[in-house]
Every structure is written in C-alpha cells, then in structure tokens.
Amino acid sequence: MFNSLSDRLTATFKNLRGKGRLTEADIDGTAREIRRALLDADVAVPVVREFIARIKARALGAEVSGALNPGQQVVKIVNEELVGILGGQTRELQLAKQPPTIIMLAGLQGAGKTTLAGKLANHLKSKGHAPLLVACDLQRPNAVKQLQVGGERAGVPVYAPHPGVSSEAEVPTGDPVAVARDGVGTAREKLHDVVIIDTAGRLGVDQELMAQAANIKAAVGAHETLFVIDAMIGQDAVNTAQAFNEGVDFTGVVLTKLDGDARGGAALSVAQVTGKPVMYASTGEGLKDFEVFHPDRMAKRILD
Ligand code: GDP
Predict the structure, then answer these.
(1) Which residue among 133, 285, 289 has the greatest number of ligand 1 atoms within 8 angstroms of its CB, and so is best to mutate?
(2) Which intervals hold domain SRP54-type proteins GTP-binding (predicted)?
(3) Whether the predicted interface score ipTM is above 0.90
(4) Which of 21, 54, 62, 86 has the CA that lies 20 to 30 A from 256?
(5) Which pLDDT score, from 0 to 100, does residue 47 have?
C-alpha cells in the first residue's frame, strides 16, 4: 500500500540535484515522514522524539555527496543511527573464562522465556556446547513441564525441583533461588559448560518478582542476564525495559514473536532507553524459529 520510508524520502527529493548541503526545509519534511514510519513501527513516542532530534542535528548542514540526492542522504543517516542504537554489530554471548557460563532469562509472563530457553539450548548445543536448562519458574502452572518438553526436543537435560511433576496444572513448590543454586551445582558436577536458567514472570512489573530475579542472579553470579520481551508490546516497551534494567541490570535483550505483525519498534525503544544490545530474535513457536539478531536487518525492517 505505502512505499517504504526509504522510497518515499528518495521520491521527495527526486527533482533536486544532489549538491550542496541539507537545509532546514529539506529536513522538516523528511522528519515528518520518519516520525510517521517510526510510530507505525511501534517505536515508543519519547524514543521517536529523541531520535528525530538527533537526526535533525546530524542532517542539518550535512554535505550531500554527488552520488546521493538529499533524500537518500537522510535515509543513510537514519539507517546509521538506527543500527547504532540497536547495538551496531551483532553481539554474541560472552562465555565465562571458567565454565559454566551462567545465563539467566528474565521478563514478563508470556514474553516467551520458557520457549526461548529451549531454543537457546538448541542453538548452543548446535555450536558444540553442552548446556543444562534449569527450571526456576515455580509460579506459572506448567512452566516446569513446558521447559522439560522444550529440553527434550532440543536433546538438552533439564534440572527441575520436582522432576516428576505429573499433572500439567501442578505448580511445583520450592525456593527458586535454591533451585538455581542446585542447578548450577549439578552443571558443575556433570561438566555442563553452559547453564540456562528460566525464571518466573508476572503479567505486570512486580517488586516481588523483580527481587526474586535479582536474588537468583546474585546467588548464581549470572554472567549474562537476557531480558526477553514480546515485540508486540508496543508503547509499554519503555517502562517494562526500564523496570527490568533497574531490577536485574540485564546484559542483553531478546525480542520474541517477530513472526507476527510487529515491525520491531520495541527493539529500538528498549535499546535506546537502556543502552543494552538486542542479541537474539524469536520468530515462532518451533525450536528452530530463532535468529541471532542483526541490527542492520532490523533497521531495514523498521524503515521498510
Ligand atoms: P513465558 O511465560 O515468558 O515463559 O512465555 P512462554 O515461553 O510460555 O510463551 C508464551 C506464549 O507465546 C506461548 O504460547 C508460546 O508458544 C508463544 N511464543 C513464544 N515465543 C514465540 C514466538 O517467537 N512467536 C510466536 N508466534 N509465539 C511465541
């Protein structure tokens, strides 16, 4: 229906010969288009505002090279800024010098943590690691069972408080911090080089939940804490990300449900307000619906 932002901007300037410098008038028109595209992609309003201000500051007076018309020049700047905010380069997990590397997942209930745990285990296994999954979501009925199913699919063992939970609706009891600690102990004993800890989420940000996640992180000394966020969350991305950043000081972000309609604006919102890189994307319910995140591809998805 609409052309991509890149096409629209380029068309706006088609008749100008690309020489000289970008003027205020050039930039105001394009800023309006960029604002609309970012809002359409569900980037949070304050993030859009800040982004536009940066683009304007950079574009005003920028020299238009012979090869590009002013529209193309602005598109180039927008693209560079998007990629920069999204973390520039793809960032992979930092492995601990002394194994096991301990990775903890945190996020709201329904964000896709348990699903992701299986995928991440599968991904790491395919790279030659020997991961152990640890089930510390003792809040959501079925979460332990779900992790066990995911582990089985990936061919990765799961450490769970009650390995024999039989009823799907049964909520295992126990202290998640103790389970995490025991899980890491088991990983050391059995020579797993990576531990992936699934934690409980709630429907909204909750102090008790945050304290629990922070306690698990401290108890096991997690090397990587991945904040898992649903790409469909839209404008709420900023508040949720800020709360988790303060609560657990995460090291990276995983964006889930990118197979849906979401354009991925949440990635930009989270990266901008926390300064943390997006590392992985989840694109479906299957084990293989998982990608290492590429900032340049996401910039394209947001702009197109
Ligand atoms: P948790 O509460 O954070 O552990 O969330 P779950 O892993 O249970 O996921 C919540 C729901 O979202 C489940 O029905 C999953 O199958 C689904 N889900 C998770 N990740 C994705 C994804 O990338 N795409 C789609 N379409 N569904 C997903």
Answers:
(1) 285
(2) 277-290
(3) yes
(4) 54
(5) 92
